[in-house]
């Protein structure tokens, strides 16, 4: 082989008889578990009552329209997107403070991270909601916003924030999630910044760049490539963590699923369907982010 020729492609992996045997064992275990559960529960399965809360027939428009569970899924997505944006801003600021030379800023960011990481999520959500956001929103006038105002009662606002009547609830849930996830993004950003070699910092200072320009022009462009993959994973984690805010009456997917289960008395069907919805949503984003990551890796070669 010529020294300049590219390395040979790795051989394709093929499934062996042992792999097929393992798959058969797993499938057999799943069917046996299903049979045992059905035998023990003696449960009358009825999926139609639950599916009606996914899509229903509207006689007035003579068409099928979204129902409670899809509305809850949309709210979950809104919460995840807005909370990720806000958590990223918090994480970038706190992550930089974690690495800067100012002792006060390092203490503040370290205290924030340790406070969040060492509290159970449920306890943090309750404390933040009842002691902070319930005081903050009235002071900011969020509770007094007129839902019939043209600025909030329009299609764009509905698409971005949901029902204006539930705006304060939505913002409370978003802030809770952003503050909680921001601590983990802070550590991701800190690790990304510290992964850039010291030589880059020293060389940038040697040519006379200000600290802000060093960060903006030299350090962050290199750190962002390492931050983005775990940040995408954190977005998927946030979708799953958004179920926590159902405990403070934010009408996202888990909260509405609880109401559907109570209304229909079909608890198993409801939670199996909601679990499938969460799985499809999170797995779709995982596939999308994996594809984007591979494209980004190719563009940097």
Throw out a few tags for this protein.
301 residues; mainly alpha; two-stranded antiparallel ribbon; 2 strands
Overview of the molecule:
The chain has 301 residues and is an all-alpha fold. It is 72% helix and 3% strand. It is built from 11 helices and 2 strands, in the order H-H-E-E-H-H-H-H-H-H-H-H-H. Strand 1 and strand 2 form a beta hairpin. It is globular and about 75 Å long.
Short description:
Helices cover 72% and strands 3% of the residues.
End-to-end separation:
24 Å
Q: From the alpha carbons, calculate the radius of gyration and give it in angstroms.
A: 25 Å
Structural class: mainly alpha
* Helix count from the secondary structure assignment: 11
Helix content: over 70%
How much of the residues is beta strand, in percent? under 5%
- Which residue ranges are poorly predicted, with pLDDT under 50 across at least 5 consecutive positions? none
Mean pLDDT: 86
Numbering strands along the chain, what is their spatial order in the largest sheet? 1-2
Q: What coarse outline follows from CA principal-axis ratios? A: globular
> Biggest sheet, in brief?
2 strands, antiparallel
> What order do the SSEs take from the amino end to the carboxyl end, as H and E?
HHEEHHHHHHHHH
Based on DSSP secondary structure assignment, what is the total number of beta strands? 2
């Amino acid at each position: 082989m010529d020294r300049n020729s590219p390395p040979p492609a790795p051989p394709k992996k093929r499934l062996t008889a042992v792999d097929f045997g393992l798959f058969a064992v797993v499938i057999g275990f799943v069917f046996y578990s299903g049979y045992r559960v059905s035998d023990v529960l003696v449960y009358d399965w009825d999926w139609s009552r639950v599916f009606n809360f996914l899509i229903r027939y509207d006689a007035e428009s003579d068409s099928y329209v979204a129902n409670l569970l899809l509305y809850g899924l949309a709210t979950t997505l809104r919460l995840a997107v807005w909370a990720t944006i806000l958590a990223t801003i918090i994480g970038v600021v706190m992550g930089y403070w974690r690495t800067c030379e100012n002792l006060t800023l390092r203490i503040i960011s370290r205290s924030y991270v340790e406070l969040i990481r060492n509290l159970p999520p449920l306890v943090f959500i309750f404390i933040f909601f009842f002691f902070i956001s319930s005081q903050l929103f009235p002071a900011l006038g969020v509770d007094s916003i007129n839902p019939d105002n043209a600025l909030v009662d329009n299609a764009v606002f509905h698409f971005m924030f949901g029902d204006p009547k539930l705006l304060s609830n939505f913002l409370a849930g978003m802030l809770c999630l952003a503050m909680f996830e921001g601590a983990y993004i802070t550590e991701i950003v800190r690790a990304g910044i510290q992964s850039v070699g010291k030589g880059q910092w020293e060389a940038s200072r040697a040519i006379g760049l200000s600290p802000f320009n060093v960060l903006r022009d030299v350090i962050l462009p290199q750190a962002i490539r390492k931050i983005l993959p775990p940040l995408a994973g954190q977005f998927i984690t946030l979708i799953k963590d958004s179920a926590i805010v159902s405990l403070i009456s934010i009408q996202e997917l888990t909260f509405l699923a609880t109401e559907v289960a109570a209304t229909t008395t079909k608890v198993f069907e409801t939670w199996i369907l909601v679990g499938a919805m969460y799985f499809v949503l999170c797995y779709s984003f995982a596939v999308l982010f994996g594809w984007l990551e591979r494209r980004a890796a190719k563009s940097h070669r």
